[in-house]
Automatic annotation (TrEMBL):
Protein name: FAD-binding oxidoreductase
Matches recorded under InterPro entries: FAD-dep_OxRdtase (IPR006076), FAD/NAD-bd_sf (IPR036188)
Record domain FAD dependent oxidoreductase: where: 5-371
Domain of life: Bacteria
Key words of the record: Oxidoreductase
High-level lineage: Bacteria, Bacillati, Cyanobacteriota, Cyanophyceae, Thermostichales
Pfam families assigned to the protein according to its UniProt record, in alphabetical order: DAO
The organism of origin for this protein: Thermostichus vulcanus str. 'Rupite'
């Protein structure tokens, strides 16, 4: 059985960034990713960096630290992650009061500003002014998350890290200590196992008999084929209903439903949004469903029609462009803060998952996690411990 200092489960952007940082600290690290080509939340992410959105002192500090890091990350990783800063336009969704939405964002690190419909259409000429009543604006960061994860993976390997493609089928346990992972009949040992499996974290640990306060939505989007039409801005309706959905679905009376198959603690929501990548492809979404079965089947054709209709209200020239519906799992915690650190009651097992707003803070939290693991005191990491939820 091979032995490592660290085994990181999940090679998306969270696992890749953390593996890289642990290797920078001198650790012997094995990164395990189930797919030869990433096919989870990293692959289907919008790539937005909402560094401006934090409302707590910690999230404000991490947002500032995060955007500064991204500005030099391509150079650090020796790869183009397609970082840019662009306009985020947030039309107020029907049924919401603009004053109330704006007031709710007043505590953000950088509060969005209300602008005129005319100004919004100057920033994004493809917008239909007839579909707009009130619009908020803020400067937003953006990366290609797939390329960024690959850049972290390659930088990790240059540091001597090991990347293995395959499925973790179980955890190796000795009493209440996790000592490695099982991949079929092959065992890999480690002093510490870190689960960065995103929306699959709950199922993976439950299979090992370990309860964890992490949940997931089924996120659905449509990827439009590359087009000659050029978007100048990111368009995302406000408020983001997904965060309210996460809060409702983890209320105390609904937590027991997560241990029952086939449950839907809350109805689905649709946050209409559109963003174009550098290759001309467009991500349009998104529906978020709270289904307790990670393998639940949804009606992709119906979802695609809903997404196209709602996003097409704002950008009608895009509504009927050819594309394909996609689906993935997105992890979150009960308080919209990530789960970072040791899982109570289990030695050798840690989490780095449950990011509701992942991309803006993942690189800086990965660095802080690794530095903390190697003896450097950190101001924020202890407050993100899964232990804050007490007994599960």
């Amino acid at each position: 059985m091979a032995n490592y200092d660290w085994i990181v489960i999940g090679g998306g952007i969270t696992g890749a960034a953390l593996s890289y940082e642990l290797a920078r600290q001198g650790g012997a690290v094995l990164l395990v990713e189930k797919d030869a080509v990433l096919n989870g939340a990293t692959r289907y992410s919008y790539g937005g960096l909402a560094h401006w959105a934090g409302k707590t002192p910690m999230l404000k500090a991490l947002g500032e630290e995060g955007i500064q890091r991204y500005r030099t990350l391509s150079e650090e990783l020796e790869a183009d992650i397609q970082f840019r800063e662009l306009d985020l336009l947030m039309p107020i969704a029907p049924g919401y009061d603009a004053d109330g939405v704006e007031a709710d964002m007043a505590d953000c690190r950088i509060p969005p500003q209300r602008i005129s419909v005319e100004a919004a259409c100057e920033l994004e000429p493809l917008l239909d002014p007839a579909a707009l009543e009130q619009v908020l604006w803020v400067s937003h960061g953006h990366i290609n998350p797939f390329l960024t994860a690959l850049a972290f993976q390659k930088a990790f390997q240059r540091l001597g890290g090991s990347l293995l493609t395959g499925t973790v089928t179980g955890l190796c346990k000795q009493g209440d200590r996790v000592v490695g992972v099982e991949m079929g009949e092959v065992l890999h040992g480690a002093a510490q196992v870190v689960v960065c499996a995103g929306g699959w974290t709950r199922a993976l640990l439950r299979q090992a008999g370990i309860r964890v306060p992490i949940y997931f939505t089924h996120a659905e989007s449509v990827e439009l084929n590359p087009t000659d039409l050029k978007l100048q801005a990111l368009v995302m309706s406000a408020p983001a209903q997904r965060f309210e959905l996460e809060q409702r679905s983890t209320r105390p009376d609904r937590i027991p439903l997560w241990d029952e198959p086939g449950q839907e603690p809350c109805p689905p929501i649709l946050d209409a949004g559109v963003l174009q990548f550098a290759d001309g492809s467009i991500r349009m979404g998104q529906i978020s469903r709270v289904l307790t079965d990670p393998y639940a089947v949804v009606d992709g054709a119906a979802s695609e029609a809903q997404i196209r209709e709602q996003a097409g209200r704002y950008l009608p020239k895009l509504a009927h462009l050819p594309g394909q519906w996609y689906h993935c799992l997105v992890a979150f915690s009960g308080d919209q803060q990530p789960l970072v650190g040791s899982l109570p009651g289990w030695e050798g097992l840690q989490l780095f998952s449950g990011f509701s707003n992942p991309l803006a803070v993942v690189p800086v939290l990965a660095r802080r996690f690794a530095q903390s693991a190697y003896g450097q005191a950190d101001e924020w990491i202890p407050s993100l411990s899964p232990g804050r939820f007490g007994e599960i």
